[in-house]
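(Protein data)
===
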Amino acid sequence: MALDIRTLDRSPDDFLPWLRAIASGFLRSTDVSEEEAKVRWAKLDAPRAQGAFEDDGRCVGTYSTFPHQLTVPGGTELTSCAVSAVTVAPTHRRRGLLTRMMGAGLDAAKERGEVCASLVAAEYRIYGRYGFGPSAWMSEFDVDVARSGVDTRNAAPDDGGRVDFASPAEIRAEGPGVHERFRRGPQSQGAVDRDTHWWQLRTGELRFPHDGYNSPFYALYRDADGVPQGLVEYTVEERWTGQLPDYTAKAQQLIGATPAAERALWYFLMSIDWVTHVHSGMRGPDDPLPHFLPDPRAARVLSTADYLWLRPLDVPAMLRARHYPAEGELVLEVRDEAGYAGGRFRLEAGPEGASCDPVTDGRSADLTLHVSELARLYLGDEPATRRVRLGAVEEHRAGAAARADTLFRTPVRPWCPDNF
């Protein structure tokens, strides 16, 4: 059959088979009701959603984007084109469907003026070919409460704050403010914004059949002035060993706008009766959790992996947006076979701001790198000197990579708490 790739605004009737194709692609139930489709259609930006359709109306490939506000080093933000709902049916692989949809999506993002694209990569080897590079990693920890050294009998905050259980309605009311205070922090690079729909889904106000929602527990930390500064959403895995409770509290999200809030919420989880282990969920790769504990060895790393990927589309705008801790100048030769962001650019940066413009005076490059390598450096996670050692970045002037490290590296590694 012939295949037609089209945006969903051309035919709203395409939406239900498109949703079912997404469910199939992610190995979920394809029993999507028309009622669910109506709710999701109201949220969808249909011109930004693409599908690959056969003549009989069957959808065999999906792709969509939406605007994200991405926090960059220094606490400022830029608009990213968030890529989501990417699937190709196993019966239609290796026909170039993703390449065609990705190309159209990035063309549209460039035309809209979005300075980069972002995604969470389900598979590592797919997205480098489209200019994406891993920009923020994550780690998961398991805390053995008994070994941690935390006095679980007296784990209440000692700073005048308090932790209280919260209802889903309270989380919908207070959570967005907590998250914005966290996301706007100077060391929250990699975080993205959350809209009302996100909070409705997360707290069960919006429910769909087969959505896998498992009603969690919630708690809020308020500081000594009564201001909510942290929240935790968690579930509990029940287990008894030799007639003794051996439960695991699993943090589905834990956000602290202050270190005191994070510490108080971790200690709260460890103080719950019957809980012997706390699973952190996805955290930053250098998360302070182990060092909140009297015995940091009690926090065992379960996994570490890449998570947020970026694809630069406008190099000068990206480099002007972020903060730099020191003064310095670099000329970067950026290679981009797709033609979105390639060129030679001079970055003049400092704590007071940065300028970045195409080179017009013929000056040669200090570093040559692929656009996906710039994505690795941008949020401060990857040292340029290591990429030079690996042969992924070419250094033309001695010391240029070390200068890039000074300019780009951040005190805290980037972290994106959200899947999308």
